[in-house]
Amino acid sequence: MRSPAQVPRTTIGATIASIDSWLSYQQRYQRVPAVQAAVWLDGEIVLSAAYGHADLETREAVRTDHRIRVASHSKIITATAIMQLAEAGRLRLDDPLREHLPWIAGTALADRTLAQLMGHRAGIFRDSSDGSHWQLDRPFPGTDDLRDRVCADEAATLGTDVRFKYSNIGYGLLGQVIEVVTGQTWGDHVTGAVFEPAGMYHTGPDWTPAARGPFATAYSGLTWSDSRVPIEQVGTHALASATGVYSTAEDLCRLGATFVEGDETLLSEASKRAMTATPMPVDGVPGLDYGLGLMVASVNDRRLLGHAGGWPGSISRLLVDPEQRFAVAVLTTAIDGPARALAEGAAKLLLHAASTSPDPGATSSRSSGSGEATPPDDPDDVLGRYVNVWGVRDLTRVGHDLLLLDATEADPLAGATWLTPDGDDRFLMTRGMGFGSVGEAVTVERGDAGAVRAIRVGGARMTPFDGTPQPTAPIRLD
Asked: d(Cα 214, Cα 231) in Å, to the nearest integer?
């Protein structure tokens, strides 16, 4: 399969426009207060966008530089710092905790290794017997509180290497190791060792009242309420190395870009391979494994790296294809935000564009003048979003395919219909769902001035959607 990085920019540009349009609609359709998204492709940010409101009460528009908590993406950062220290010979991945944290000697966790903690294979409890800090019923634990918790007999709930068992406490301990080895706070160390080299200038290690903003407001979900309520920002103290980080979609993409093949900004190729060499399956989540601080997800049969983040009031997802050289990041400002589905949807559109585009130098009906194949002529004024009482469809181009997409679908390619030009203002539906109108035509209706007034999809009339709420009047037979 070709990489999206090899697709001519004229072709990938249309695909990025489709991603942008779909994400914008999904934010509105799923009633997410704000969505921030970015796509990095082979050395550059090709999409950076923000949709919705940073604050629902003031109606302030969200921007691409609004900071949003990315929670467990902190674990990639902590794992990266541990790997850097291992490269420098300042620690080893098979070091037991007691070697760096003498106070843990004699406890059930003393012999658990750094690698086991990084891979959530140490059998440590997730948040201890008191996880009420996640409901903001009490502050997140400080250093002394963390020590008291991990020294309790109940800290070891399973043996080592038995199964993937997620543990924020384990990553809190890794942060303590970094502080002992470097003589710096975890936040100061990762700022200099990770954020700055990667160009993550809108990222910080933990929220404090003095943290540099602007911050988007975090919101509750709609699972137990008819409306969203704001959730206070708080610091995570000794668990910052597990969940404290705030960032932007652009910055997460820049972090992801350091994991593509050939990039050694933060880590050597050997270290990056070690982080995913022996991933463990995550029970209950098909297609997801976990390495050393990195999730390994299967998307369209591709092995994508990254992480997810869940914070009281924001959900985030980073996906990286090291071989295809792209990264996608989506941040949402609600505790039920669909960041995973949105990030995977954007990645699927990129992968589809690559799979449908001919090799560079191939002949086609058009040429860019550089020998690269480019898409056939598009009916530019016909491309766009259309609506009727049954739903919303996007007539768009993804790679070299002309598609009619259901904009409401969480997977943008689900329910897609493939179109082939069949004369002026007419297209044949050549592939699609069995309950659709495959084999029939999509035709274009124009007004006296030639502007598109509607399209008919298998006879069903749909009008251009300008964002106006539909319908605006009772629906009845004329």
From this structure: 16
In degrees and rounded to multiples of 5, residue 170 shows phi and psi of -60, -40
Q: Are 293 and 76 in contact (CB under 8 A)?
A: yes
Q: What is the pLDDT of residues 356-381, one digit of tens each?
A: 865 544 433 333 333 344 445 556 78
Reading the block at residue 236, the tokens are: 């995570």
Q: In 156-248, which residue ranges form alpha helices assigned H by DSSP?
A: 168-182, 186-190, 196-198, 240-243
Paired with 317 in beta bridges are: 308, 330
Q: Count CB atoms within 10 A of the CB of residue 420.
A: 14
pLDDT band, very low/low/confident/very high, at 8 (cuts 50, 70, 90): low
Burial of 2 (0-12, 13-18, 19+ CB in 10 A): middle
Residue 169 Cα distances to 143, 179, 410, angstroms: 11, 16, 33
Contact present, 280 and 290 (Cβ < 8 Å): yes
Q: How many CB atoms lie within 10 A of CB 470?
A: 13
Look at residue 377 in the predicted model and tell me its pLDDT. 53
Q: What is 4-35 written as a DSSP string?
A: GGGS-HHHHHHHHHHHHHHHHHHHHHTT-SEE
- Read off the pTM: 0.92
| Helix-helix angle 269-276:74-87, to 10 degrees | 130
The encoded tokens of residue 466 equal: 């300008």
Residue 94 and residue 169: Cα distance in Å, rounded? 19
For the stretch 65-92, what's the b/e string if a residue is b when 16 or more beta carbons lie within 10 angstroms of its beta carbon? ebbbbbbbbbbbbbbbbbbbbbeeeebe
pLDDT, tens digit, 9 for 90 and up, residues 432-472: 999 889 999 999 999 989 999 999 998 899 999 987 777 77
- Return the structure tokens found at 217: 């407001």
- Three-state secondary-structure class, residue 86: helix
